[in-house]
Recover the amino acids of this structure.
C-alpha cells in the first residue's frame, strides 16, 4: 500500500512489503493502462504458443530417423555468382529489427503529440514489416522451386519442410496481422483520432496514443520471436 | 488498511466517503480508503435490441449467453451418455448403435463435457457474470472483445455440432484424439469429423483467450476502492487462477490442433510414424505420436484444474454464506488455489504412464501428483472446519455443497490410487479411471454448478427457486450419481476395460452384467431428474415469489447492486467502497449476523470484528 502522496509513509521492507503493495487496492500494476496490461498477458500466452511450436520442432528434429538438412546450404543465396549462406535471412532480420526501432520512435513521438512524426514512423514500420513478409514469400517460393514441401524435401528429413513452413508461416501471419494494424493506426494517427479522442469504429472506445504503444508491444514481441526462430532454424 | 493512516487526518478529508454513510457528517478517520486509482469506466450503452441482447457488450448478458450455450452443449453430451449407457447396460437393445457410433458418442461426450460445457460454463458463464459484480467494477475492461469472445465460442460450438452432420460423422478417436489412429482410415470420422473437431478447438482457444484477457485484467486492474486482493471472494480467486491456467495451457492445445490439422490436410508427419497398412507402407513417416500426448496433456491436466478451481472458489463462498461463518483459513485457501494452479503444470505425464515413456519420468510425475494432494486436502479440511459449529442452513444450496465435498473427497482419494505408477498400470484404461474422473471433475463440479444456480438465481432473475423441488432435484441427482459411479470402481477392479463397445461373454463380466444394467438404469433416471430443475425454473419464472434484495444475507458486492437484477453498469451512480473481506458472518456485537463488505468500520465500531 504505497501511497506516494502520503508523506512519511513507507512500505515494509522485503517480501511482506512487496506482497502488500501488489495486493493493495485497486490495481496490481500501478498506473498501467488496461489495454496495455491485456497486451502483456496476451503476449505471455502467445509466448507459450511459440514455445510449444519450437519445443515440438526440437523434439521432431531429434526423433526423426532421416538426416536433417544443412541450413547454411539450404538457405544460401546466390550473390554475384557466389553462394552466400544466410544472406537473405540476415537482410530479413535486419529489416525487422530496424522496424522495431522505428516503432519505438513512433511511440515516443506519439506521447509527445507529434502527430506527423508518429504517423510517418508507423508508416515506416509498416513498410518494414511488408518488406519482411515479401522477402519471406520470396524465400518460400525459392524453397518450393527447389522441391521443398511440407510433406517432403530433397535435402533429407521431411519434417524439415513441415516445421519450416508451419512455424515461419505462423510467424509470418503474426507479422501480416501487425502490418494491417500498423496501416490502420497510421491512418488514425494522421487523421488525428488520437488527438481528439475519437471513438473506435467497432469498439466505441475513446482513442488515445497509448494504443500506439500497445501495438508497439505486439510488434516488438513479433520481432523477438523472430530472433528465436532465426536461431533455431538457421543457426542450429 | 485503516490503522496505517490514523494520523494522516489532513489527507482523509477529501477522500473518505462511504456509500452507506452514517449521516454523521465528517467520517471518522478509521474509514479511510485510498482514493480512486482508475478513472470512471467509459461504458457504451446499447441502443438497439441487437446491441442489447445479441451482440451485447454487457458482461452479465454475455455471461448468460455463455451459460445457455454451454448448457445446450451439456444437454447434447448428456444425451450421448444415455446412448452409451443404453449400449453398455443392454447390448443390442438399440440396434442403431453400431461400434462406430459408440466411439463417436464417447469422443463427443468427453470433449463436449470437459471443454464446451464445464470450461465455458465456469469461466464464460459464472466468470462473466460474477467477476465485475464481485470486484465492484462496472463491466469487463474491454467489453467489445468480451462480446467477440462469446461469439467466437458460439461459432466453435456450431462447428462442433456441424460435425454430427458431415459425411462420416464426428470423430470417434476418443476425446484425447491420440494420433496416429485419429486421422487414419478405420477410425470413425477420420475425414470431416476430425477436421471440424480440430477447427472447433482452435476457435474455442482463440475465443477463450479474448475472454480470459478480460477476466484477468478486470480482476487485477479494475477493482473498486478498498478491494485489495486479499479481500476478494474466493470465487474470484478460483476463476482468476483458472483463467491464468487456461491462458498458459490452451496454447499447447492450439499448437497440437494446428499440427494435427496439417498432418491430416497436407500430409505432414509431425505425429505420424512409419505405418504399415495391409502390408503397404503409408506416406507418413518419422513423426512422434508421443509428442502429441505431451502437448495434449500439457493442456489436458491444467484443464482439470481450470474446471476444478472455479468450483473450489464458488463452493467456499456458498459454504461460508449458508453456514453463516467465515471461511476457515482464507489466506490458506487463496494460497492453496494458487499452489494447485502452479503445480498443475508439472503433473501432466501421469496420464501417460502406459505410453512407454522413460520410467524416471513416471517417478517424477508420480511425486508431483501426490504433492498436489496436499493443498487440495487443506482445502477440504478448511471447508469442513468452516462448517464446524457454523449456523448451518440445510437448504438446497448447502445440500449441493455437502454433496460436492463428499463426491470430491471420493474422487480425490481414487486419484491418489491412480497417481502411483505401480497402481495405475493395472488400473489404467479400466472403469476405475472412468469412475475416478467422473467423480472428481464431473460430478463434483456439477454439484457446485447446481448449488451456484440455486444461490445466484435470485440475483440473475429476481425470483427464488422452489426449495422443495430443489431438494428433490438434489437427492435424486446425488444418490443417482453415486449409483452410477460407485459400482464403476468395482468394475475397474475386476478388470472391465473402458471404451469397449460390448463385453460379449468375457469371463469377468459374470458379475459385471447386472451391475452394468443397474448403472445404466441409474444414468437414465439421473439424466431425467435434471428436468426437475428445468421445471423449477419455468415454474419460478411464472409463479415464483419475488426475491428480496440480498435474500441469503450475503456480504459480497454482487448483492449490493442498485437494482436486482443489476442493470448495465451494475452499481448505479457510485461504485461501492469496500472496507472488509466478504466473510464477516456472526461477528460478536453486530446487530445482524452479517457485515457487508461495504460496512464502514465506524458503523460497526461496537463489534469485535477482525481487521482484514
Amino acid at each position: 500500500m504505497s501511497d506516494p502522496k502520503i508523506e512519511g509513509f513507507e512500505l515494509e521492507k522485503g517480501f511482506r512489503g512487496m506482497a502488500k503493495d501488489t495486493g493493495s487496492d485497486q490495481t496490481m500494476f500501478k498506473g498501467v493502462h488496461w489495454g496495455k496490461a491485456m497486451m502483456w498477458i496476451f503476449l505471455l500466452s502467445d509466448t507459450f504458443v511459440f514455445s510449444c511450436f519450437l519445443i515440438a520442432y526440437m523434439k521432431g528434429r531429434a526423433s526423426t530417423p532421416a538426416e536433417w538438412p544443412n541450413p547454411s546450404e539450404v538457405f544460401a543465396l546466390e550473390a554475384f555468382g557466389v553462394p552466400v549462406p544466410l544472406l537473405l535471412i540476415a537482410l530479413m532480420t535486419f529489416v525487422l529489427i530496424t522496424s522495431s526501432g522505428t516503432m519505438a520512435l513512433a511511440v515516443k513521438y506519439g506521447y509527445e503529440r507529434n502527430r506527423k512524426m508518429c504517423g510517418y514512423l508507423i508508416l515506416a514500420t509498416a513498410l518494414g514489416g511488408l518488406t519482411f513478409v515479401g522477402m519471406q514469400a520470396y524465400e518460400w517460393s525459392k524453397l518450393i522451386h527447389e522441391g521443398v514441401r511440407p510433406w517432403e524435401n530433397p535435402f533429407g528429413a521431411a519434417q524439415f519442410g513441415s516445421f519450416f513452413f508451419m512455424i515461419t508461416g505462423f510467424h509470418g501471419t503474426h507479422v501480416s496481422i501487425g502490418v494491417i494494424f500498423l496501416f490502420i493506426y497510421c491512418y488514425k494517427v494522421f487523421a488525428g483520432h488520437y488527438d481528439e479522442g475519437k471513438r473506435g469504429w467497432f469498439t466505441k472506445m475513446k482513442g488515445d496514443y497509448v494504443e500506439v504503444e500497445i501495438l508497439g508491444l505486439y510488434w516488438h514481441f513479433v520481432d523477438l520471436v523472430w530472433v528465436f526462430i532465426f536461431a533455431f532454424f538457421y543457426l542450429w | 488498511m485503516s490503522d496505517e493512516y490514523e494520523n494522516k487526518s489532513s489527507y482523509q478529508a477529501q477522500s473518505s466517503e462511504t456509500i452507506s454513510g452514517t449521516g454523521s457528517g465528517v467520517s471518522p478517520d478509521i474509514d479511510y480508503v485510498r482514493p480512486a486509482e482508475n478513472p470512471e469506466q467509459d461504458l457504451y450503452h446499447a441502443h438497439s435490441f441487437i446491441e442489447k441482447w445479441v451482440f451485447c457488450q454487457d458482461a452479465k448478458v454475455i455471461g448468460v449467453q455463455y451459460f445457455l450455450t454451454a448448457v445446450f452443449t451439456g444437454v447434447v453430451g448428456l444425451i450421448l451418455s444415455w446412448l452409451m449407457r443404453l449400449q453398455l447396460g443392454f447390448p443390442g437393445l438399440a440396434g442403431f448403435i453400431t461400434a462406430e457410433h459408440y466411439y463417436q458418442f464417447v469422443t463427443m461426450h468427453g470433449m463436449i463435457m470437459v471443454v464446451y460445457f464445464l470450461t465455458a460454463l465456469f469461466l464464460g458463464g459464472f466468470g462473466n457474470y460474477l467477476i465485475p459484480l464481485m470486484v465492484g467494477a462496472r463491466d469487463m475492461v474491454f467489453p467489445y472483445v468480451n462480446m467477440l469472445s462469446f461469439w467466437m465460442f458460439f461459432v466453435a460450438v456450431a462447428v462442433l455440432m456441424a460435425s454430427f452432420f458431415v459425411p462420416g460423422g464426428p470423430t470417434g478417436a476418443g476425446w484425447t484424439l491420440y494420433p496416429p489412429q485419429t486421422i487414419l482410415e478405420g477410425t470413425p470420422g477420420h475425414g470431416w469429423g476430425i477436421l471440424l473437431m480440430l477447427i472447433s478447438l482452435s476457435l474455442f482457444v482463440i475465443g477463450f483467450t479474448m475472454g480470459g484477457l478480460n477476466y484477468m485484467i478486470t480482476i487485477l486492474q479494475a477493482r473498486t476502492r478498498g478491494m485489495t486482493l486479499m479481500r476478494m471472494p474466493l470465487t474470484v480467486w478460483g476463476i482468476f487462477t483458472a483463467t491464468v491456467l487456461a491462458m498458459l495451457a490452451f496454447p499447447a492445445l492450439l499448437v497440437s490442433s494446428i499440427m494435427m490439422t496439417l498432418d491430416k490436410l497436407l500430409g505432414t508427419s509431425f505425429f505420424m510414424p512409419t505405418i504399415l497398412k495391409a502390408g503397404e507402407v503409408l506416406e507418413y513417416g518419422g513423426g512422434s505420436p508421443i509428442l502429441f500426448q505431451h502437448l495434449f496433456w500439457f493442456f489436458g491436466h491444467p484443464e482439470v484444474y481450470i474446471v476444478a478451481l472455479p468450483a473450489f472458489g464458488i463452493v467456499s463462498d456458498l459454504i461460508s454464506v449458508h453456514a453463516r461463518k467465515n471461511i476457515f483459513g482464507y489466506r490458506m485457501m487463496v494460497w492453496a488455489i494458487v499452489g494447485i494452479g502452479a503445480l498443475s503444470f508439472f503433473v501432466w505425464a501421469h496420464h501417460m504412464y502406459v505410453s512407454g515413456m522413460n520410467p524416471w519420468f513416471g517417478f517424477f510425475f508420480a511425486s508431483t501428483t501426490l504433492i498436489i494432494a496436499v493443498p487440495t486436502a487443506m482445502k477440504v479440511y478448511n471447508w469442513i472446519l468452516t462448517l464446524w459449529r457454523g449456523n448451518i442452513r440445510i437448504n438446497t444450496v448447502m445440500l449441493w455443497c455437502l454433496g460436492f465435498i463428499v463426491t470430491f473427497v471420493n474422487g480425490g482419494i481414487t486419484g491418489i490410487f491412480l497417481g502411483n505408477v505401480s497402481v495405475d498400470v493395472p488400473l489404467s484404461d479400466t472403469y476405475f479411471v472412468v469412475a475416478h474422473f467422473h467423480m472428481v471433475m464431473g460430478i463434483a463440479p456439477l454439484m457446485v454448478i447446481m448449488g451456484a444456480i440455486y444461490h445466484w438465481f435470485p440475483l440473475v432473475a429476481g425470483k427464488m427457486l422452489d426449495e422443495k423441488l430443489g431438494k428433490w432435484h438434489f437427492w435424486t441427482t446425488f444418490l443417482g450419481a453415486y449409483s452410477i459411479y460407485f459400482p464403476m470402481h468395482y468394475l475397474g477392479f475386476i478388470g472391465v476395460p473402458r471404451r469397449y463397445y460390448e463385453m460379449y461373454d468375457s469371463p469377468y463380466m459374470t458379475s459385471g452384467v447386472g451391475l452394468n444394467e443397474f448403472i445404466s438404469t441409474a444414468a437414465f433416471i439421473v439424466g431425467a431428474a435434471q428436468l426437475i430443475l428445468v421445471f423449477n425454473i419455468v415454474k419460478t419464472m411464472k409463479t415464483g415469489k419475488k426475491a428480496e434484495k440480498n435474500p441469503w444475507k450475503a456480504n459480497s458486492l454482487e448483492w449490493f447492486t442498485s437494482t436486482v437484477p443489476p442493470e448495465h453498469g451494475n452499481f448505479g451512480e457510485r461504485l461501492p467502497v469496500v472496507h472488509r473481506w466478504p466473510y464477516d458472518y456472526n461477528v460478536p456485537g453486530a446487530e445482524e449476523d452479517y457485515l457487508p463488505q461495504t460496512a464502514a468500520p465506524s458503523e460497526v465500531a461496537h463489534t469485535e470484528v477482525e481487521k482484514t
Summary: Residues 51-232 of chain B form one domain. Chain B touches chain A through 59 residues (CB under 8 Å). The first strand of chain B starts at residue 276 and ends at 277. Residues 74 and 117 of chain B are 5 Å apart (CA to CA).
